[in-house]
């Protein structure tokens, strides 16, 4: 990553030219990924990551947890990303933004191994929960058909509702009043603690909504001593 940019670009160009001469059945998944990256970032040293990092194809409703100081790159498609509070995003490739190679090399964990795909735990019909191995966040997924409803139990802390697709309503019950707000792709609501929510789908297409808040179960287990960490 510290090589001269012109030399990196020349090596990549020669590699792509060699791949172009190969028959499709001769190309590996890594080769195909290299071509995809090169088409978007020609000459970028990050293209070589195709041969160094795990490539993962996520299906709808799949999730993956990426720990702190682990490199990753989104290649294509759409996803919902939730992350811990941080002002430290370090880049070293596949970007037109500033690259800080020295800091990246110092901070990486250098752990290897296959990634683990999370399928989510079914809480009840139309509701899934994704709980990563950290206290910072958890994610609930609501998927409803027209006329269906689901209740989200009160969270102990603040949370956020994000609508991905479909149309519907969310009824928020508070101590002294209740309010019903519209849901459609792009709507985001900040939700106060200790309030239950009733979500209803009104569209022909599925209503998909996510709620994010802290990982309450892991926090409670940690406080009760159920989790033992040895350093």
From TrEMBL:
Pfam families: PMI_typeI_C, PMI_typeI_hel. InterPro entries: Man6P_Isoase-1, Mannose-6-P_Isomerase, Pmannose_isomerase-type1_CS, PMI_typeI_C, PMI_typeI_hel, RmlC-like_jellyroll, RmlC_Cupin_sf. Its EC number is 5.3.1.8. Its cofactor is Zn(2+). Residues 1-52 form the Phosphomannose isomerase type I helical insertion domain. It comes from the Eukaryota. One of its GO terms (molecular function) is zinc ion binding. Residues 130-173 form the Phosphomannose isomerase type I C-terminal domain. One of its GO terms (cellular component) is cytosol. It is an enzyme of class 5 (isomerase). Pathway: Nucleotide-sugar biosynthesis; GDP-alpha-D-mannose biosynthesis; alpha-D-mannose 1-phosphate from D-fructose 6-phosphate: step 1/2. It catalyses: D-mannose 6-phosphate = D-fructose 6-phosphate. One of its GO terms (biological process) is carbohydrate metabolic process. Belongs to the mannose-6-phosphate isomerase type 1 family. This is mannose-6-phosphate isomerase. It comes from Rhodosorus marinus.
């Amino acid at each position: 990553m510290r090589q001269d940019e012109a030399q990196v670009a020349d090596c990549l160009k020669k590699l792509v030219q060699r791949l172009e001469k190969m028959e499709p059945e001769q190309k590996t998944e890594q080769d195909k990924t290299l071509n995809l990256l090169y088409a978007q970032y020609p000459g970028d040293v990050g293209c070589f990551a195709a041969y160094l990092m795990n490539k993962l194809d996520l299906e709808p409703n799949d999730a993956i947890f990426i720990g702190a100081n682990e490199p990753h790159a989104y290649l294509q498609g759409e996803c919902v990303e939730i992350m811990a509070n941080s002002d430290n995003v370090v880049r070293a490739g596949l970007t037109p933004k500033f690259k800080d190679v020295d800091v990246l090399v110092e901070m990486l964990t250098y752990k290897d191994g296959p990634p683990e795909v999370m399928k989510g735990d079914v809480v009840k019909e139309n509701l899934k929960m994704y709980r990563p191995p950290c206290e910072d966040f958890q994610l609930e997924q609501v998927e409803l058909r027209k006329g269906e409803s689901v209740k989200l139990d009160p969270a102990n802390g603040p949370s956020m509702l994000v609508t991905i697709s479909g149309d519907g309503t969310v009824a928020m019950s508070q101590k002294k009043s209740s309010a019903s707000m519209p849901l459609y792709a792009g709507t985001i609501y900040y939700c106060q603690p200790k309030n239950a929510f009733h979500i209803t789908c009104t569209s022909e297409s599925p209503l998909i909504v996510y709620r994010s808040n802290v990982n309450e179960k892991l926090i409670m287990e940690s406080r009760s001593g159920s989790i033992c960490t040895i350093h």
